[in-house]
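Hello,

Our lab assistant flagged a job as stuck in the queue for most of the afternoon. It eventually completed. Since we weren't sure the result was trustworthy after the delay, we are filing this so someone can double-check. Below is the sequence as submitted and the structure that was eventually returned. Let us know if re-running is recommended.
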Amino acid sequence: MASSATPNPHSYDVFLSFRGEDTRKNFTDHLYNTLVAYGIHTFRDDEELLKGEDIKSGLSRAIEGSKIFIIIFSENYAASKWCLNELAMIIEYTTLEDNKVIPVFYHVKPSDVGHQSESFEVAFFNHEKDADQEKKELIEKWRITLKKAAKLSGYHVDNQ
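-- returned structure --
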């Protein structure tokens, strides 16, 4: 634990944002277990959301109670509306607070995230199908959020 004080049950040193089907059982799992082994109180949705709790409000509570955000961008990250909404909440929150966001580009290029190319382009094409005006505005918010996140200094993990 980062401090000697007992944290409230909704206070986290690190919040992990990731696309489960891409990284949950490999990279994210190893990162989570390492952080926990070092005594770092880490939020990961399948471990920390309370059973029966509304997911959106649980994520919002966890985001507001976190100090550092590690965003693991992967091939299918942008295909998930949940991931994109979560990222938008994180970027919005960290703009207001003095928190740190650390992007990890897991088998994707930062430029693909920022410019929404490659798999990110395909994901946005699918989001934009039959989108009404409200959804188009949300999609534009996601695009802006990804551009901001891609400009942050982070880590690039590739096949080597």
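-- support follow-up --
The delay was a queue issue, not a problem with the job. The result is valid. The longest helix spans residues 133-150. The mean pLDDT is 90.
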